Amino acid sequence: MSARRVLIIDGSEDGARTLAALLESAGYETRIATCGLTGLACAISDPPDAVILDLDLPDISGYDVCRRLRKQRSCADMLIIAHTGWTRHSDRIAASEAGCDHYVLKPAALDTLDALLRRIERRAGG
């Protein structure tokens, strides 16, 4: 398996670290950002293969993060997974309209995230 780099942008540092540890145990390389602006800077300066994005961030919304990422040429095609506790149908629609590829509820099971992240290889032709 080739290294698959995942950026976790989550307002909860504990939640982000737990998710990172789970993904690393499955062979992913992870980075963490606990606010939207830091996550944007990380993704733009060193684009990951995928972003797992909380929609409820302390500085800007996850929707805004996603929209801004999609405007960056280097980030336009990356896999973006909304990972949130928000359960309303309108939130799912807003995430999709912002450019999120998938929407999963917290806490997502490792096998669910792994199945979605494996799409990185398919996008890259691997």
What would your notes on this structure say?
There is one protein chain. The chain is an alpha/beta fold and 126 residues long. It has one domain: Rossmann fold (3-Layer(aba) Sandwich). Strands 2-1-3-4-5 form a 5-stranded parallel sheet, sandwiched between helices. Helix 4 links the parallel strand 4 and strand 5. The protein is globular.
Structural descriptors:
alpha/beta; 126 residues; globular; 5-stranded parallel beta sheet; 44% helix; Rossmann fold; 6 helices
Total domain units: 1
Shape: globular
What's the average pLDDT? 92
Extract low-pLDDT stretches: none
Q: Which structural category fits the helices and strands? A: alpha/beta
What is the straight-line distance between the termini? 9 Å
Instruction: Give the number of helices.
Output: 6
**Assembly type:** single chain
Strand content: 15-25%
Topology-level CATH name:
Rossmann fold
Which percent range fits the helix content? 40-55%
CATH H level: which superfamily? Response regulator
Under CATH at level 1, the class stands as Alpha Beta
The largest sheet is: 5 strands, parallel
One letter per element, helices H and strands E, the order comes to EHEHEHEHEHH
Q: How many strands appear in the DSSP assignment?
A: 5
